[in-house]
Amino acid sequence: MKSCIKTAVHSVMRSRTRLLILFLLYPWMVGFNGPNDSLPNTFSIFGGSGQYDHITRDCNNHITSVTEIPFQEVGGSVESPLADWVGYTLRGGYISAASGAGCAVFTESSGALTDSLGNPVRGSAGASRQSGYYGGGTLRLRSNFFGLDVGGLAFSRHVAFSEFYPSAVVVTGGLRVGHLDAWYITADFLNDDMLFSSRAAGSFGFGMSLGDVEEGTRTKRHSTLWLGLGGYPYDATLMMAKVSVPFNRTWTFTASGSFSAAQNFEGAVSAGLGYAW
Questions:
Q1: Is residue 215 included in any domain, yes or no?
Q2: Does residue 192 lie in a domain region?
Q3: Please, are residues 233 and 104 in contact by the beta-carbon 8 Å criterion?
Q4: What percent of the chain stands above pLDDT 90?
Q5: How many domains would you assign to the chain?
Q6: CB burial readout 84-118, b (16+ within 10 A) else e
Q7: Burial class of 207 by CB neighbour count within 10 A (0 to 12, 13 to 18, 19+)
Q8: Which pLDDT tens digit goes with each residue over 53-109?
Q9: Residue 223 lies in a domain
């Protein structure tokens, strides 16, 4: 009797495993981009600027100090397809941020003023700056209905994406579910250009196609609008928007903005230009 039950359980588990594998592969089996919709090679440059706050609170969650940390970043990326359903992105950039106690971009901080309790003094972040470079790559699996990005970034100095994870190398990734021609949802971690001024390091949002630009029969380019929420390195939750507008088959302009509704201002703006060939 026990043997029969065990056999039945194993059979059910094998069936569920097959169904899960089929579910994960289904988008590529029926919805991959055909040759007439293949994405072109694209080179993009970006620039952005913003401000986040390092805030300390007491046991009652009352704010005891605020350090405003402005930052700027520039960067570029190259995207190319390997096949109809897979491609890669190489990207790199430069980040410069005011150095304050508890600076969230890099683990090292220098030149920040603190009070007798060790808390950063409001407005002291501008006393000095920290700068660093980053570079890395992403493997991009894609279909009309599903996309998965997995990659990594290496920084020229240690970054601190949480107090438990100070490192110079971080894993990046992104997930898209939905049709690029209509609407889709995304979840990303350090998967957008720029890293902090285009979106927060971690973001979740909703995107939609605003129309197509076509020249010839090979390439279809979409105007898109993306709206979402994000966090790190910002103290409060950010509301974010990003729009991408292709002028023609070759050139695309991208702009984004974000802000928080918290008492202390946090937010950023960025813009970029892409060239496809």
A1: yes
A2: yes
A3: yes
A4: 28
A5: 1
A6: bbebebebbbebbbbbbbbbbbbbebeebeeeeee
A7: buried
A8: 777 778 877 777 777 788 899 999 999 998 888 999 999 999 888 765 545 566 654
A9: yes
